[in-house]
């Protein structure tokens, strides 16, 4: 758990980068820091592992005031991932990943086991890739190595500054999914910087939207889109925030509220979709294949009905738009 | 990159061919005969020359590399421009002026020559050390710090390995220049192969001149070759300049 108590950051001689920030990141949750460039996301993040000093206020990490801890030891207990992966070109992948365990004086055997485990998490062959140099990996692979390097010593807290920012959209989405799967297993407390709204909605348990170093709103993604607290928040998520928030709802939610349609057996070659798929993907699938319906299957593969564009629209209208704060619509 | 390498190699072959051609020409004209006929003097001069180069180069490395490291530490960063300017300024003073100055302080002889050579080797080593350390991606340092490395660990595990290429290139430049410049040691009574070279010039004796000049050239080429090999051993594969492009 990370608690910010009235934290303020003032760089020497310039205006305040972070103003009176007060919030808590719960154990095992991902909080995404979101906001326009220069709003203080990186500064906020770097105060946690004391790469930046705190001008006023305090940050409490698992009951310890960060000020009272030794900065070096604190950093070894916090995973840190940056956009430009920061892999050291003079070291092999294995040496790169094992840096913090090495600093902590782990035995050779323990390091080896850990390395093999981590490489399995991201589906890369430990034997082959371990000996390679960073430059012998693709950008996506380097970034995944950057992520497992931060996980190496199993730190309770992770700081990630636009970790997937430099990747192309398709790879980025894959790595996001992979990371979420890893997170379900390891349950770290994560502060994650992004300037991509879709990424924030997808990754966050809670989003913190910042402007000029101040918190605009701190809420779950759906609350943020359904009930934006002010003009800035609703504008930030844009007019299509209703459609964006479709990605927070699944076919299952729709089935529970308005029910699925009958399957039309006469139509050939219709695609199928899992009942846990989110509605935004479902909608784009419906639009892309120009089909009137997509068959919905449950986890066992059984067909339980079909879904149509009309149904998604109806759901969007009543369930999402109907519940949005009306005053912010416009 | 391949083309660059090709041109580089072709160039080197041409230079080697010229040197070898010159060598054969000198040999066929008996210009190198002093090396055999007066081999005891030759060996003394050769040893003096090597000592001049080794002592001054090692001193320069021992001073310039740590100085380069020190000046790039955050605490001293602000003084970097000042120190660089002083060192640059030192370089613009003509060698003879430095020698004259040294003679008036240290007198004539080996120490004066070593000192002058040492001063002249400082700049390339210092400048390349600073450049090598300065061009390391700031994100690497940031990542290292963020993972809880101590400053000396960052220096030895990240900064030095990743700037080794540049530092060694500076040392190589300095040593090769140094071997040539050491021929001037004769002027301050420092000995070395310059003795024969200057004697040859004064007596219009090609034999002395070339018996002095050719070994100096071979020493320079040899040192260049050995130090390039050393780069292969000392620079981590992932941080070699070629590998990066
Ligand atoms: N080292 C520094 N010295 C002085 N001012 C700084 C420093 N680092 C950041 N700032 C200022 O603090 C403010 C917040 O910067 P920060 O890097 O935290 O923004 P950010 O939200 O991460 O932006 P981006 O999305 O572009 O990465 C900016 O106005 C920036 O100019
Ligand atoms: Mg930033």
TrEMBL record, chain A:
Residue ranges of every copy of the ABC transporter domain listed in the record: 2-237
Stretches that traverse the bilayer: none
Family, per entry: Belongs to the ABC transporter superfamily.
Record text on subunit structure and interactions: The complex is composed of two ATP-binding proteins (OpuCA), two transmembrane proteins (OpuCB and OpuCD) and a solute-binding protein (OpuCC).
Signal sequence range: none
Keyword vocabulary terms for this entry: ATP-binding, Nucleotide-binding, Transport
The UniProt record lists the keyword ATP-binding: yes
Protein name in the entry: Carnitine transport ATP-binding protein OpuCA
Coiled coil: none
EC numbers, comma separated: 7.6.2.9
InterPro entries, per the entry: AAA+_ATPase, ABC_transporter-like_ATP-bd, ABC_transporter-like_CS, P-loop_NTPase
Automatic annotation (TrEMBL), chain B:
Keywords for this protein: Membrane, Transmembrane, Transmembrane helix, Transport
InterPro entries reported for this sequence: ABC_transp_perm/SBD (IPR051204), MetI-like (IPR000515), MetI-like_sf (IPR035906)
Pfam families, per the entry: BPD_transp_1
Any coiled-coil regions, as ranges: none
Domain ABC transmembrane type-1: 46-227
Annotated localization: Cell membrane; Membrane
Chief localisation class: membrane
GO biological processes: glycine betaine transport; transmembrane transport
Any one GO CC term of the record: plasma membrane
Ranges that cross the membrane: 12-32, 52-72, 93-120, 183-201, 207-227
Topology with respect to the bilayer: Multi-pass membrane protein
PANTHER family the UniProt entry points to: GLYCINE BETAINE/L-PROLINE TRANSPORT SYSTEM PERMEASE PROTEIN PROW, OSMOPROTECTANT IMPORT PERMEASE PROTEIN OSMW
Family: Belongs to the binding-protein-dependent transport system permease family.
Record-given protein name: ABC transporter permease
